[in-house]
């Protein structure tokens, strides 16, 4: 019956499915050919996608131009999606030193060499372009230099130290330190975590994890070796092993703010076009987009299947309409893609405890994914199916497992199954949200583990729950639910619970809620409990709140959070009490704490008083916690609060020791660095971002050497950016002809090495001209037709003004 139901759900899913957005397909097999030794190397003008990219050193080999691979990687990183870049340069071009036009053609990139004009034109398909997020930074196209990639050696050490003093057992003093370290060495990640504790002169320690991790982004694989926690799905147990695990990685997915994967809203524009977006028949927005890859985030999708319509009107009049049915379920894979993990090893308590685990999931349709899992120890083995589906109204997921044992502890075969259904419409709060859950556990069901069971086999159990949530008025919400648990083994027993709640929010940030629970035990009379909660959280101050709770059994709790300033610092202040008010009950607890955070540390102190009337005892406890992280890239170090993923370490040069700087990421986050301070900015793996630099209160002629930087992190990597300043200069000179006569009233345009116009100048009646606000570099002054051009190189100098002397030009017509 379950198999028939499964295929029925698959049929519904497939009938509503459509093809997902196409992704560029490049074989990641490395190219091999004879080693190329250029006959000579020359300077050639380069253009990428029709735009000048300056002059580069290229090789000439058998009358064709070849590019040095490292140079090509630097030039193209800003024009390629991170995954495309990794496949091309980390895999396909891995064993090459020089790249030919044929090599580029094999990965779908056009490379044309004009021997007469000494130019190279590289054309990259729009499908390869970095994805631009429409909601976040639609105007930010990664096109900045320099381009920073992961450093070959980086890492961090996170420390969380705690000191506790208590009057229990003769004023106990306990100190503990929790450490987490990660070192990235040429893409190999060494990870370790553990705890050291000292109490009453006794030292103890433990190692939670210690493993090496290899990440292959081109093939989307990860391998972990050491003391690891294995990945699981369904009813599998997540054991800690001494072993190895290999599987696909999740970091190639685009995770957006709600926690859902929105990569199915990606689309490609081949020509300038006006794009209109509709979701479930409702117009969302219209925008004008240039050729490239785009992704729209935060669309009003509902749970289940959603119709996503794009109308693309190109500048030449061609109109294209794309329709997709998109499931709102984070665990559904794209069609034809798979996800797997295989793990094996021994138990950490007993090396004789062998353990193996694995799963494989496959995207069968845009609305349905399914697969199987296996797990075994030396006493039992388990196999199971798991699946997730998006229906026209809601999403449903489930799993079924069967355990077989040969140790005689429980039943020889024991099954288990579960299913969950969710329906919600975030865009329409007037429609209630519904949740249904079902689970069944057969008698004696227990998944494989790294230790033998030490209790009686569990009874068979059936459980069911349902919940309904709805907005009654604009600020009034209500929910009601029911749960059932029934033990099927002898003796049978059944319990029920009904619970409900209603809450009212207020304009100024207050909330009042009342919830109740009616329980029907398997024997005895029903019991009722209720909780009244009142909270105030002013909308203009998220760090200030008051919470009060009262239960029917007399228990009360009160929580206050506020801020205050002292010693030039801002502190968080909190008070929490439980059953401390008069009439609350016999036992009470009072806590008070203060906390100060910065970009470099997090320190807090707390005190607790507990009174137990039944034992007539009082307990006093004090806690002091300090958290910080030491991060490093090469020989550069800096302190920060926490690094959950990748990071960029900004090290200041000696010229910035007297300047303060403000650093901004294209995500909107900004960080301030005081004079000469190294700081850490957190990043997300494989998410290319733009870093901008603003000097604060610096002289007007000082500017960041790199005002905009493109940052391209790898998996859990560190990047070094050596922030520096450069001075802007004023140049002056005299324009004369070949006879030394001043050339008066002549305009000129100044271009940089990349061919971009920087500024303009104009000579007076004596031939004098001035060029203002110009940075060091190589420039060309283009005079009107007949007067030729002037090239000059501006080097950094201690002077603010530089004399170019007499600049000779041809007279008109000569």
Task: Walk me through the topology.
Elements: H1 2-15, E1 40-48, E2 51-61, E3 64-68, H2 69-76, H3 82-92, E4 98-99, H4 101-106, E5 110-114, E6 119-123, E7 131-133, E8 147-149, E9 153-166, E10 172-185, E11 188-199, E12 202-216, E13 221-229, E14 240-248, E15 266-269, E16 273-279, E17 282-289, E18 292-295, E19 305-314, E20 319-327, E21 338-347, E22 354-365, E23 368-376, E24 380-391, E25 394-405, E26 413-423, E27 433-441, E28 461-471, E29 476-487, E30 493-505, E31 510-520, E32 527-536, E33 545-551, E34 556-566, E35 569-578, E36 588-597, E37 601-612, E38 617-633, E39 636-640, E40 646-652, E41 660-665, E42 670-673, E43 679-683, E44 689-696, E45 702-704, E46 708-712, E47 718-723, E48 725-727, E49 729-736, E50 747-751, E51 757-762, E52 768-774, E53 777-782, E54 789-794, E55 801-808
Parallel strand pairs: 1-6, 7-18, 8-46, 40-47, 49-55
Antiparallel strand pairs: 1-2, 2-3, 3-4, 5-6, 9-10, 9-38, 10-11, 11-12, 12-13, 13-14, 14-21, 15-18, 16-17, 16-19, 19-20, 21-22, 22-23, 23-24, 24-25, 25-26, 26-27, 27-28, 28-29, 29-30, 30-31, 31-32, 32-33, 33-34, 34-35, 35-36, 36-37, 37-38, 38-39, 40-43, 41-42, 41-44, 44-46, 45-48, 49-52, 50-51, ...
């Amino acid at each position: 019956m379950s198999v028939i139901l499964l295929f029925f759900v698959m049929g519904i899913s497939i009938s509503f499915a459509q093809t997902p957005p196409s992704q560029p397909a490049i074989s990641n097999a490395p190219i091999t050919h004879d080693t190329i030794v250029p006959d000579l190397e020359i300077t050639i003008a380069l253009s990428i996608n029709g735009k000048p990219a300056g002059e580069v050193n290229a090789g000439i080999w058998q009358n064709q131009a070849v590019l040095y691979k490292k140079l090509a990687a630097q030039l193209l990183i800003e024009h390629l999606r991170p995954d495309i870049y990794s496949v091309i340069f980390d895999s396909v071009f891995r064993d090459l030193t020089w790249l030919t036009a044929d090599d580029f053609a094999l990965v779908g990139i056009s490379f044309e060499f004009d021997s007469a004009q000494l130019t190279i034109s590289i054309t990259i398909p729009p499908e390869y372009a970095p994805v631009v997020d429409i909601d976040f930074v639609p105007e930010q196209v990664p096109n900045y230099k320099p381009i920073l990639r992961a450093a070959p050696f980086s890492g961090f050490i996170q420390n969380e130290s705690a000191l506790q003093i208590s009057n229990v057992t003769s004023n106990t003093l306990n100190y503990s330190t929790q450490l987490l370290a990660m070192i990235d060495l040429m893409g190999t990640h060494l990870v370790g975590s553990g705890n050291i504790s000292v109490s009453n002169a006794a030292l103890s320690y433990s190692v939670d994890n210690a493993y090496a991790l290899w990440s292959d982004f081109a093939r989307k694989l990860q391998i972990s070796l050491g003391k690891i926690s294995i990945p699981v799905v369904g009813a599998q147990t997540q054991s800690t092993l001494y072993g190895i695990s290999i599987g696909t990685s999740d970091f190639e997915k685009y995770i957006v703010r709600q926690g859902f994967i929105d990569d199915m809203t990606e689309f490609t524009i081949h020509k300038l076009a006006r794009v209109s977006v509709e979701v479930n028949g409702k117009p969302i927005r219209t925008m004008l987009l240039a050729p490239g890859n785009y992704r729209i985030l935060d669309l009003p999708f509902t749970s289940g299947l959603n119709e996503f319509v794009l109308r693309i009107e190109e500048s030449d009049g061609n109109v294209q309409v794309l329709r997709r049915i998109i499931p709102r379920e984070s665990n559904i894979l794209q069609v034809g893609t798979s996800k797997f993990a295989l793990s094996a090893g021994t138990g950490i308590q007993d090396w004789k405890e062998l353990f193996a685990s694995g799963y494989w999931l496959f995207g069968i349709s845009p609305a349905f994914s399914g697969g199987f899992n296996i797990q075994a120890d030396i006493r039992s083995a388990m196999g199971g199916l798991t699946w997730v589906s998006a229906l026209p109204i809601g999403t449903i997921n489930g799993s079924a497992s069967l355990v077989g044992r040969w140790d005689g502890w429980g039943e020889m075969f024991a099954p288990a199954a579960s299913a969950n259904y969710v329906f919600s419409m975030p865009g329409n709060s007037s429609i209630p949200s519904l949740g249904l859950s079902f689970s069944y556990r057969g008698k004696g069901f227990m998944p494989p583990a790294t230790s033998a069971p030490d209790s009686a086999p569990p009874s068979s159990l059936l459980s069911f729950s349902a919940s309904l949530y709805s907005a009654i008025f604009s600020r009034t919400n209500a929910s009601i639910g029911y749960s059932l648990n029934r033990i099927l083994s002898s003796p049978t027993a059944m319990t029920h619970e009904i619970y409900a709640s209603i809450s009212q929010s207020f304009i100024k940030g207050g909330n009042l809620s009342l919830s109740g629970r009616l329980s029907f035990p398997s024997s005895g009379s029903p019991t009722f409990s209720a909780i009244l909660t009142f909270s105030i959280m002013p909308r203009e101050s998220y760090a200030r709140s008051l919470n009060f709770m009262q239960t029917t059994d007399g228990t009360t709790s009160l929580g206050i959070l506020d801020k205050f300033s002292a010693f030039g610092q801002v502190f968080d202040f909190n008070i929490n009490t439980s059953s401390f008010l008069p009439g609350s009950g016999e036992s009470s607890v009072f806590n008070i704490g203060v906390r100060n955070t910065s970009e470099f540390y997090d320190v807090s102190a707390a005190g607790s008083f507990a009174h137990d009337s039944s034992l007539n005892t009082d307990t006093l406890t004090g806690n002091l916690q300090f958290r910080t992280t030491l991060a490093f890239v090469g020989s550069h170090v800096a302190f920060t609060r926490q690094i959950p993923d990748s990071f960029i370490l900004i090290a200041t040069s000696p010229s910035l020791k007297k300047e303060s700087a403000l650093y901004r990421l294209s995500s909107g986050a900004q960080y301030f660095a005081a004079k000469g301070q190294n700081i850490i900015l957190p990043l997300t793996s494989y998410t290319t971002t733009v870093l901008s630099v603003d000097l604060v209160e610096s002289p007007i002629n000082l500017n960041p050497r790199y005002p905009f930087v493109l940052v391209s992190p790898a998996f859990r990597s560190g990047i070094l950016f050596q922030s520096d300043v450069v001075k802007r200069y004023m140049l002056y000179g005299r324009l004369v002809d070949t006879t030394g006569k001043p050339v008066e009233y002549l305009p000129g345009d100044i271009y940089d090495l990349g061919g971009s116009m920087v500024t303009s100048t104009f000579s007076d009646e004596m031939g004098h001209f001035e060029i203002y606000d110009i940075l060091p570099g190589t420039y060309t002054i283009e005079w009107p037709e007949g007067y030729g051009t002037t090239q000059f190189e501006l080097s950094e100098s201690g002077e603010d003004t530089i004399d170019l002397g007499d600049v000779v030009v041809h007279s008109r017509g000569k």
